[in-house]
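User: Could you check the structure of this?
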Amino acid sequence: MRLISAILCLVITPLFTYAQPGGAEDRAYAVKSLDRIARPVMESLAEGKLKQRLPLAPGEESRRDYTHLEAFGRTLAGIAPWLALGADDTPEGRLRAEYIRLSNQAMIHATAPESPDRMNFTKGGQPLVDAAFLAQALIRAPEQLWRPLDETQRRNLADALKATRRIKPYESNWLLFSALVEAALWKCTGECEQPPIERALAKHEEWYLGDGTYGDGPEYHWDYYNSFVIQPALIDVLQVCAEKKSPLAAKFPEVLKRAGRYAEVQERLISPEGTFPVIGRSSAYRFGAFQTLSIVALRHELPKSVEPAAVRCGLTAVIRRMLEAPGTFDKNGWLRAGVAGHQPAVREGYISTGSLYLCLAGLAHLGLPPDDPLWTGPARDWTQKRIWAGENVPADHSMK
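Assistant: Sure, the predicted structure tokens are below.
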């Protein structure tokens, strides 16, 4: 009987052993996910029909003036690192070419004064937030998003961004939204207002709490705003400062070091099952919570303790877990509020359908080309999967 049992174990066990896919399969899944999420937004706006098509869930009617710029700005910020790779003759490269074309047309419709899909850049406070995400996209992929526009189209876009200057940001991560707008104008036009950049950098230096984490204003909140907004925005703004050889870039190395520590912690938050703690506001932004980890990987700034292939595998597990939950998309392919499927109770009052597209920020690592070690490295278990499998993993330590 023991012999029979041993033989059965040898035969049956492999049937229940999960084999992680390789980097090419992970990348294909990430690209497919990006396309599935972004296409309804980008195709609709490129056709000048986003306002006709973008749905609002029950209770979201008060967000009608804001939801369209939310969907566009957040989608474009998330896909911009991938667009920055440019077009090529591979299937993925041809898909990028399509999205670059859609993005250019969408930008024209969003900012032309006579367009039926002209976005709201002035009414209320929310337009500053999503103009900033649009600006972040320009910083990340200027060759694909700014350069192809003609003089009139560039002026319309710049004027739209400048229109948000009338909106006073809160003493919180909102300061970075004004900074992003000015940084994008600086990068693309050569001119900007420096005080919003200076103030945002100074206040976030004041609000740094230690061990890779910033407060959202003078107080700390248990949420993922260090990843949704703060650390990626600091990196993008300081990147422009460095390109312009501004003294403001002096803190850039320290900010990157802090982001590396925060990314290290984020990698450790991914459970063996591909879940993570759902804590704090804006949980409906799904895997956008891992934007900092994705951006740090994109920049090759991961700490030595974090293997790029482990980041790839961990993020893929999270994205699969979230996107494949039943109810994530409506019948027309639009995102619905939730973390694992349709869970409208997680939606705060400031969130609408357009808001949900910040999840795409968690795919920033697609900006690494297919031959990067993150994609070519053999599948590697992420930290919590190794620990809970009994592996002797080195202890974690705070940042020195």
